[in-house]
Amino acid sequence: MTAPARRTPPANRRHGFDLRSTALFFVLLAGFVTVLGLTARMVADAAQRRPAWVFVLVVLGVAGFVGLRRRVHVARAARRAAAALDEAAREAADELETPAIPRQRPAAEATAGYDALTPEEFEESIAALCERDGCSAVDVAGGAGDLGADVVAVTPDGHRVVIQCKHYGDAHSVGSQDLQRFGGTCFTVHEADIAVLVTTSDFTTPALEYADQCGIVCVDRETLQAWTDGTGPRPWESAALAGEATGWGTADAETQVQP
């Protein structure tokens, strides 16, 4: 006799209502509500009997909450400060790695014209021309007590050039007295190899004669403009040409300086 096959319930068969589990859930819920109610009643009774303690607990709770928020803010501020310090350190490292660019005087070509400059700015412009044309150790020494040496430099071929700057108007020419004062100090005091007097005006005839006798290079307005534009010789080149033409140089001129 063949035994009947046992029927296997489907895997997705839904469980029926479980009365025991439901009853246990409601019992636990009732217990939780009871405990919560008793706790609230105890707190209320304590508040009635000792309100000061409740106040203390409330203050402590508020203080703890505020302290927690403050710690959060402090932590954020610390992170921001650390990030700022890190950024500053990176910038400082970049600055140290970047080679320093030496300060350069404004080029004379960039000026609006020599007439618009102050005497001090005119001296700076002449110094800029010297630097542009290869001079080294360029120094603006003009001022009270300069004894005629407004700009001092070393030419590309190693000669010491001393320049006096006269920022005059068109109606004020450089006279022989200006040349004599400069000639009395440029070689003996400042030990110039090449002495130059440059002006925004022109020179009187006696001044040019004295300069020719002493070996001082005179740069008038027209010659200055040619030097600025690069179309004319540098003053130290003019001195070399004059020495070759006359057969004596600035060393001979030193002995011919008149008092």
In short:
This protein has 259 residues and is of the alpha/beta class. 54% of the residues lie in helices and 10% in strands.
Write the layout of secondary structure elements.
Blueprint: H1 19-49, H2 51-97, H3 119-132, E1 136-140, E2 151-154, E3 160-166, H4 176-186, E4 194-199, H5 205-214, E5 216-219, H6 221-229, H7 235-246, H8 250-254
Parallel strand pairs: 3-4, 4-5
Antiparallel strand pairs: 1-2, 2-3
Domain Restriction endonuclease type IV Mrr: 115-227
Transmembrane segments: 21-40, 52-70
Protein name: Restriction system protein
Total individual domains? 2
What is the CATH class of the largest domain? Alpha Beta
Principal-axes geometry comes out as rod-shaped
Major β-sheet profile = 5 strands, mixed
The radius of gyration over CA amounts to: 48 Å
Tell me the β content: 5-15%
The overall strand count is 5
CATH architecture assignment name of the largest domain: 3-Layer(aba) Sandwich
Number of helices in the DSSP assignment = 8
* Low-pLDDT runs: 107-112, 245-259
Helix content: 40-55%
InterPro entries: Restrct_endonuc-II-like, Restrct_endonuc_IV_Mrr, tRNA_endonuc-like_dom_sf, Type_IV_Methyl-Rstrct_Enzyme
Pfam family, one: Mrr_cat
Keywords: Membrane, Transmembrane, Transmembrane helix
GO biological process, one term: DNA restriction-modification system
